[in-house]
Amino acid sequence: SVWPHDSALVATGLMRYGFIEEARRVATGIFDAAEHFDGRLPELFCGFDRGEFSGPVPYPTACSPQAWAAAAPVQLVRALLRFDPVFTRGVVHLAPILPEDVGDFQAENVLLDTSRITIRAHGTHGTIDGLPPGLKLVGDPRPPLAYPPTGVWQGA
User: Fold this and answer.
1) Which of 37, 66, 85, 113 is the most exposed place for a label (fewest CB within 10 A)?
2) Which helix (H) or strand (E) is 93 found in, with range?
3) CB of 142 within 8 A of CB of 12?
4) pTM here?
């Protein structure tokens, strides 16, 4: 079984630990599946080898659309944008790694603190318009967490 919301969490975790290509592969797979399901991800689908089936196989009793599955692409885009506000440090990281076939990405009216921002990205370049006062845009990704965990918080 492939659960889109679980896959989004996995991709986010992979990205946070610095496994960029692996995270992009998971995200791309879910986006490909969404295309197959006409943009309406079911709560789960059958995950058979692509060499054996032309597309994802619907799971007979899966709800579609499903709220948590519908949220998965939003989280996947956030992970691929490497959009990471860190208010305690006064920074917003934006270091996109969008696949080239995505083309231009734009999200308007995104709530960040008390401001509405616009995020634009293409490939590995991104900008944010309307950052709240006191926040600085950083074009590098948030540093990965230490792995294996040491038992001491390593987060930035």
Assistant:
1) 113
2) strand 91-93
3) no
4) 0.86
